[in-house]
Specification:
254 residues; alpha+beta; Alpha-Beta Plaits; 7 strands; 39% helix; globular
């Protein structure tokens, strides 16, 4: 097993992925996926992060969050609450012991322009890509429903922040535009590892700026170009039993 690096800087938007231990379908029951969403709502309130999109599948999750807080531990605390409580409740109900999640989650910084939109669409198309549903709205446990039909209570998605990032006016314009983008995207959707195993995705200036801010944490990481986007690639290393080595990465299909 290897470990997923996490490089957090406040003021950025992050695509977070987390898989169940040994790729087991520990979130297979609707009640467990629902509890994950409920803890996501609670964590959002508690740590003031701006949730832009999410999906909870049977064996992994995707979150898209903006961190504009003054607390550098906001995302780690946010994830610890959700993942910890979800695991505790499941293990208690099933009288189960052992790890619920596969080591550490992975976080990729996403530039908030067209790259953000592509990441959102990639998340929403997850269960269609997996062949579980034909229409992403058939999957109940995702932010897509709230993106298209805003909730009056218990909302998770920060629609105002998202509309500002995507330069979209009112909700009707957003719904119409997003449905069109998603329909076009699904026809060509395929698994793209860069969204889940890169340190950052954006244009060259964005990647260069982030790399400078991260400094020694990303020494040896390379900037590469894929089509029209750039990515700061993670350094892949085999897992070591030496507990002092903490720069390993865990890459998965999702």
């Amino acid at each position: 097993m290897a470990r997923a690096n996490r490089h957090f800087i406040q003021g950025f938007t992050w695509h977070i992925t987390h898989r169940c231990h040994k790729q087991e379908f520990l979130l297979n029951f609707d009640k467990d996926k629902k509890r994950y969403v409920e803890w996501l709502f609670e964590a959002k309130k508690r740590y003031k992060l701006q949730v832009l999109n999410y999906i909870v599948t049977s064996n992994h999750i995707h979150l898209l969050v903006s961190d504009n807080t003054k607390n550098r531990n906001s995302i780690p605390d946010f994830m610890q609450l959700i993942a910890g409580r979800t695991a505790q409740e499941y293990n208690k109900r099933k009288k189960r012991k052992g790890a619920f999640w596969e080591d550490r989650y992975h976080a990729t910084a996403i530039q908030t322009d067209n790259h953000l939109l592509k990441c959102m669409l990639y998340i929403d198309a997850n269960m269609v890509r997996a062949g579980v549903v034909k229409n992403p709205l058939e999957w109940k446990f995702s932010g897509l429903h709230e993106l298209l039909e805003p909730k009056k209570r218990y909302s998770i998605i920060d629609r105002e922040h998202l509309k500002n990032l995507l330069y979209i006016g009112n909700q009707n314009n957003f719904k119409e535009s997003y449905q069109k983008w998603l329909a076009e995207y699904i026809g060509n959707s395929k698994y793209e590892s860069k969204w889940s195993n890169s340190i950052a995705i954006g244009n060259k200036d964005f990647i260069t700026n982030l790399k400078e801010k991260l400094g020694f944490k990303v020494v040896g990481r390379k900037i590469s170009k894929d089509s029209k986007l750039y990515q700061l690639r993670e350094k892949i290393e085999e897992y070591s039993t030496d507990s002092n080595k903490s720069n390993n990465s865990f890459i998965w299909n999702s």
